[in-house]
């Protein structure tokens, strides 16, 4: 039964009883999920769409086990069970959340033991499940704020090879808007750049990687994106200390950055910066240590894109982001804010698609980025982009 202060919404292939959202609307007309007695954020549907797609690509029609550790209304875990065929645990420490989880399990006819409901603090649950002998193929961590308080626990109940999905809504410290909190929470010294949203993604991966490595586990990004107020990363995990060490030497390094010319690149060690000079003659600023390998796996993202074409319940935003990532994931250099670069050069803004076509015509891979509508990713030295902008008559 649905009471007058509840409503039923549809997301993907499931129906959900949630608190009546019109009662928790801000003056600007937007839903404020933090005001609800149980957290349900309709704008995070892209994150949940991506979760289902990732698990469908990884497991197909084969069964797998999962943990939704911070479930709220249970929407993510229930969608995993209904749309991806998983069996597992849906957990929340709040009794009000457990009420909605049970109601939504009944609403979606999952009362066959496919989903078990727990009500424990997430760290306690994940640590206790370590001793059951049941290896879990997927663990989801979707906190309100930073995932940092839960990361040491999330790796413990995993199978030897598994996947984790992690959300972070603390975008201000991740993008260095609150540099003191960035230093406290993520052990990272901020540098002001034009690609701060990509810094946030790389910093989140770096922190997860370090916590995993401390537990003799390696992580490798499969899918990484930012949408509205949150980051979402999916990482393949392996219980392999040697692989963690190999990736630490290969993928943790420094981004060098020239604030006056917006040049940027990667080096493995600070001593490598001795050979780098900005066009202005200044020495570049080092950023790191930070993840310098790819933000996702190209083949995996292509498989996700193909899988998205086989289902009809994804949102337009999900399809748009996947379409952009299909091109973007091939290019590892941090994006360049073209408007800022044009301002430095004293040039007018070109049309993005014409600029991309010009770059491609001279053999430079280029793509828009989902991180910032003003950003451009190129697989070349920033000086090549500068030369193209200077030679384009439309920018004068």
From TrEMBL:
It comes from the Archaea. GO terms for biological process: tRNA N2-guanine methylation. Keywords: Methyltransferase, RNA-binding, S-adenosyl-L-methionine, Transferase, tRNA processing, tRNA-binding. InterPro entries: SAM-dependent_MTases_sf, Trm1, tRNA_met_Trm1_C. It holds the Pfam family TRM. PROSITE patterns: SAM_MT_TRM1. It is an enzyme of class 2 (transferase). One of its GO terms (molecular function) is tRNA (guanine(26)-N2)-dimethyltransferase activity. Its EC number is 2.1.1.216. Belongs to the class I-like SAM-binding methyltransferase superfamily. Trm1 family. This is tRNA (guanine(26)-N(2))-dimethyltransferase.
């Amino acid at each position: 039964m649905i009471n007058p202060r509840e409503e039923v919404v549809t997301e993907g292939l499931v129906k959900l009883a949630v608190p009546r959202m019109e009662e928790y609307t801000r003056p600007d007309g937007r839903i404020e999920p933090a005001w609800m007695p149980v957290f349900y954020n309709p704008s995070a549907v892209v994150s949940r769409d991506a979760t289902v797609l990732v698990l469908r690509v990884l497991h197909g029609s084969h069964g797998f086990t999962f943990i939704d550790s911070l479930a709220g209304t249970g929407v993510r875990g229930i969608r995993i069970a209904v749309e991806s065929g998983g069996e597992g645990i849906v957990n929340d420490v709040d009794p009000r959340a457990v009420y909605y989880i049970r109601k939504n399990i009944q609403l979606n006819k999952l009362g066959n033991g496919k989903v078990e409901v727990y009500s424990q603090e997430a760290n306690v649950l994940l640590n206790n499940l370590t001793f059951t002998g049941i290896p879990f193929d997927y663990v989801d961590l979707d906190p309100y704020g930073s995932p940092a308080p839960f990361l040491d626990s999330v790796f413990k109940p995993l199978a030897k090879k598994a996947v984790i999905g992690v959300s972070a809504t603390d975008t201000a410290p991740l993008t260095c808007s609150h540099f003191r909190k960035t230093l406290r929470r993520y052990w990272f010294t901020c540098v002001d750049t034009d690609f701060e949203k990509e810094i946030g993604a790389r910093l989140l991966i770096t922190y997860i990687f370090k916590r995993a490595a401390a537990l003799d586990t390696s992580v490798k990004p499969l899918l990484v994106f930012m949408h509205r107020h949150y980051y979402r990363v999916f990482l393949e995990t392996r219980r392999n200390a040697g692989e963690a060490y190999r990736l630490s030497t290969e993928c943790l390094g420094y981004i060098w950055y020239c604030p006056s010319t917006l040049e940027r690149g990667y080096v493995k060690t600070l001593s490598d910066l001795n050979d780098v000079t900005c066009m202005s003659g200044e020495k570049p600023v080092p950023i790191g240590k930070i993840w310098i390998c790819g933000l996702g796996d190209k083949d995996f993202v292509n498989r996700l894109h193909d899988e998205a074409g086989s289902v009809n319940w994804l949102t337009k935003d999900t399809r748009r982001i996947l379409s952009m990532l299909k091109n973007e994931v091939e290019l590892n250099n941090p994006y360049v804010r073209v408007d800022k670069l044009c301002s430095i050069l004293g040039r007018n803004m070109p049309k993005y698609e014409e600029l991309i076509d010009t770059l491609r015509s001279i053999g430079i891979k280029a793509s828009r980025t989902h991180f910032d509508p003003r950003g451009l990713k190129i697989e070349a030295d920033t000086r090549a982009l500068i030369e193209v902008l200077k030679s384009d008559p439309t920018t004068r």
